[in-house]
Amino acid sequence: MGGALGLTLAALAYPGLLGLDTVSGSPSRVVAQTRWGPLTEADRDFVVKVRAAGLWEYPVGEMAVKKGTTKAVVTAGRHLIDGHAALDASCRKIAPLLDITLPDAASPQQRGFVTTLGADTGKQFDRDMANILRVTHGQIFNTIAKIRSTTRNSLVRALANQANATVLDHITVMEDTGLVDYDRVLFQETTPPKLPASDLTPPPPSGGQPQVVLTPPPGATSSPLDLDGGQPAAPAPGPTVR
To answer: Helix or strand or coil: residue 34?
Structure first.
């Protein structure tokens, strides 16, 4: 009974720990004072969102490289892999410094996108990938802008700079496929479905398990943050835990 109660309490506490669901409900509430500046709930939520995005978009990029039927779709997949490997490395660098717990799996909603695209084949895969990824990147693009303009934490600001460039690149390569239905995308961006918090929150990491690492591709062009200067550093390939 004690073990079950402990698991229940951990499940209840974890969303707050991530900053995805908080007691105060105030994104501007400062949750920690750090040497890089105050950390707010919104800052913490942003770091987690960037990490979670990579955990589903990276495997979708791998799918696109294997299943894409056009050169533009394959190119988009390569950009997803390259960009999210670098963003993931940056998140893993700054999270322990800011005492942020990172997930090792995407949210149920995000895993649903992966399932849908995994079942798609041919042109259907191309169309669904371009439109789903264009919607999700458009949504987080606005979040990045808000964080970049309001955060007082220099590490979060540097991550926002990197995420801004990466997401804009990914938006562009999705549009370059020629498959984006702009009317549909705009509607879905501005009218997202009302889902329970449990569908939008990544699960807590499993205790004692190695952290998931998104490996940079050969010849990676995107780089993680250099914490000494707050700028991207040379890519550093590492082992992948899948």
So the answer is: strand
